[in-house]
């Protein structure tokens, strides 16, 4: 990073006058407090997640906490876990239909209602979390998604990301494309549609039943989230092969969805607060996952998980299938098409650019890690 | 990601009562506005950057804008570019000495005063931006840095990151370690100290003089930032070899430094605002760089820049030299040692974990990019 040590003439002149003034200009003025309208707002937020998934559920709590702390409690949102007020998958719909004011959810949960809900959350083989943020905040991603959402009476801001998820737990190894034929896997949405073209038989199974289904062999595989959340359920005991990457979720955006009429009625300062508090949460959730996943992965391996990478033929076939699926949906759904076409130029540019500094720095550091050169010097 | 479609009994019971209540419970209550003390605060922020570096300088402006928007102008910070009030490199010191209330700068600019300022910003071969955020927000990085900063009357929060920077511009190719011997390179701080051990002769040259120095051959190489900022200066015309990665800056944290007595005097809501607005800016700066760097790199290549990767022997020698430097500084500086030792366990864990989903997802996507498979379907 460059140094900027130049001081221009004006600066020197200004500076001489500073010494005395500085001590009094700053900090809190004792001047009369200004009476300020900060309306009391009481909202309810439904989360699509159970409290046991503390990081992703915690994102909704974080948004509420941040709004409360920055308004001295005036902007108060009560958070309900999945199932407390409405089922997790109905969180977004419950904002559209006016049951609650806001939701913390993932757009693709509404994929069955309208596939165009998905691109604002994630698509298989889309972008990693960092590139997703770049596209969302500077590439027009947030604006375009909100254009689409308006017809459902919704406004949404990114409010969390898990990073690249794991590919899930398998009872047997997947070496070739043939190993996927007839494989019963708990996986939903677009990802299920993509894997179906490779012969997988997608299964819809409630979270609480996944372990037992794997144990009994009712299903052969199940995707969940990543090491930290997966470790809580002990999948390695019944389906020890732990595959990566979860190519269907490279950087899923967890959204804060607000009823448009509630958003429009907010004072400008509260709207600015929502933008800031959700963006801070968006970064904080990735940061927390990035902090808790590494030790959890080590623990899982210690507990018997067998790490496996999907082979190149599997990834390539899934990539081609995904493109087909996007083409077919695009032919039928204008809003899906617009979003899918809008993100592609940046995706191409990013994965060219990332090959330089980002990738070589990380690769070099990983090589050092494998050689034991990152072992703490104190230990 | 799992689906959570369970609805418990309590939820059903609650839900039946919701329909009517929801329409009135939400949005802004027309109830009397509560008079609320929001003190007027007027601070000055000095940036270490010139306005021409709009993204990194813009981070300081963003923090000020966000605080203004969320307080209806009550928390008002005027931002001064490098050199307007104080020289860029003196930004942090000018907070310590009470000249201004706050600064937007990089801790390692104060490295000469105390090497322990560096780890809170960046060290060669430390962490990428995402892992840095994880360590900062969840690994105790922010707290530890602030423990150190207290003795300088400072409080600091991350307020920006550039991502992995480029390795800079070279007049000739660097193929072997011998090519570094006697190489006059504009590079400062700890990075200069590390490269010096490889035979490089570090040069301190003001930003405005770098181009002319490269053109005349007064220096052989210069590091700057990344494609977007570098493109403004046209270095490719005089030093066409553009190296990566900038291993001395894997994820430099740009900090928002506040005079501790000013911080302590802030109301709790304003402190919460500072935390939220800086964290949002921390993520926004990476996002912006990640959005503007990719097209800038393509443009630079079109304009004649020759992309080159540092060879493995160069990176390895620099890595070993960095470890030596850290050991030597640690032997003399307790606060440097504490910070360096604190970050190492997470660094080791992260670069093990990142080898799974994150790395394989990105690698696969980069392969698709090279094969032209990310070319926009519309184009």
TrEMBL record, chains A, B:
<feature type="binding site">
    <location>
        <position position="165"/>
    </location>
    <ligand>
        <name>substrate</name>
    </ligand>
</feature>
<dbReference type="GO" id="GO:0031317">
    <property type="term" value="C:tripartite ATP-independent periplasmic transporter complex"/>
</dbReference>
<feature type="signal peptide">
    <location>
        <begin position="1"/>
        <end position="30"/>
    </location>
</feature>
<dbReference type="InterPro" id="IPR026289">
    <property type="entry name" value="SBP_TakP-like"/>
</dbReference>
<dbReference type="GO" id="GO:0055085">
    <property type="term" value="P:transmembrane transport"/>
</dbReference>
<dbReference type="GO" id="GO:0046872">
    <property type="term" value="F:metal ion binding"/>
</dbReference>
<keyword id="KW-0732">Signal</keyword>
<feature type="binding site">
    <location>
        <position position="186"/>
    </location>
    <ligand>
        <name>substrate</name>
    </ligand>
</feature>
<dbReference type="Pfam" id="PF03480">
    <property type="entry name" value="DctP"/>
</dbReference>
<feature type="binding site">
    <location>
        <position position="224"/>
    </location>
    <ligand>
        <name>Na(+)</name>
    </ligand>
</feature>
<dbReference type="InterPro" id="IPR018389">
    <property type="entry name" value="DctP_fam"/>
</dbReference>
<keyword id="KW-0479">Metal-binding</keyword>
<dbReference type="GO" id="GO:0042597">
    <property type="term" value="C:periplasmic space"/>
</dbReference>
<feature type="binding site">
    <location>
        <position position="223"/>
    </location>
    <ligand>
        <name>substrate</name>
    </ligand>
</feature>
<feature type="binding site">
    <location>
        <position position="249"/>
    </location>
    <ligand>
        <name>substrate</name>
    </ligand>
</feature>
<dbReference type="InterPro" id="IPR006311">
    <property type="entry name" value="TAT_signal"/>
</dbReference>
<keyword id="KW-0574">Periplasm</keyword>
<dbReference type="InterPro" id="IPR038404">
    <property type="entry name" value="TRAP_DctP_sf"/>
</dbReference>
<protein>
    <submittedName>
        <fullName>ABC transporter substrate-binding protein</fullName>
    </submittedName>
</protein>
């Amino acid at each position: 990073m460059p140094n900027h040590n130049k001081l221009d003439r004006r600066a020197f002149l200004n500076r001489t006058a500073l010494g005395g003034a500085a001590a009094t200009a700053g900090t809190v003025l004792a001047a009369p407090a200004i009476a300020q309208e900060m309306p009391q707002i009481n909202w309810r937020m439904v989360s699509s997640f159970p409290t046991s998934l503390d990081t992703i559920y915690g994102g909704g709590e974080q948004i509420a906490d941040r709004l409360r702390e920055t308004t001295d409690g005036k902007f108060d949102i009560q958070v309900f876990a999945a199932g407390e007020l409405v089922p997790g998958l109905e969180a977004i719909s419950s904002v559209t239909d006016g049951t609650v004011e806001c939701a913390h959810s993932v757009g693709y949960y509404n994929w069955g209602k309208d596939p165009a809900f998905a691109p604002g959350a994630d698509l298989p083989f889309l972008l990693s979390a960092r590139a997703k943020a770049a596209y969302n905040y500077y590439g027009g991603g947030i604006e375009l998604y909100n254009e689409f959402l308006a017809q459902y009476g919704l406004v949404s801001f990114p409010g969390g990301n898990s990073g690249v998820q794991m590919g899930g737990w398998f009872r047997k190894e997947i070496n070739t494309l043939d190993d996927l034929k007839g494989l019963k896997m708990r996986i939903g949405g677009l990802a299920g549609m993509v894997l179906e073209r490779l012969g997988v038989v997608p299964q819809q199974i409630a979270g609480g039943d996944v372990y037992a289904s794997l144990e009994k062999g009712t299903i052969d595989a199940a995707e969940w989230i990543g090491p930290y959340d997966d470790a809580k359920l002990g999948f390695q005991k019944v389906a020890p092969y732990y595959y990566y990457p979860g190519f269907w979720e490279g950087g899923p955006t967890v959204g804060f969805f607000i009823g448009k009429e509630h958003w429009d009625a907010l004072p400008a300062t509260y709207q600015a607060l929502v933008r800031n508090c959700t963006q801070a949460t968006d970064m904080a959730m990735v940061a927390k996952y990035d902090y808790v996943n590494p030790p959890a992965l080590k623990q899982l391996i210690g507990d018997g998980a067998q790490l496996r990478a999907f082979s190149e033929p599997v990834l390539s076939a899934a990539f081609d299938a995904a493109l087909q699926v996007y083409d077919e949906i695009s032919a039928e759904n204008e809003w899906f098409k617009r979003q899918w076409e809008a993100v592609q130029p940046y995706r191409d540019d990013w994965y060219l650019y990332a090959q330089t500094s980002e990738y070589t720095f990380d690769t070099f550091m990983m090589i050092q890690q494998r050689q034991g050169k990152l072992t703490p010097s104190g230990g």
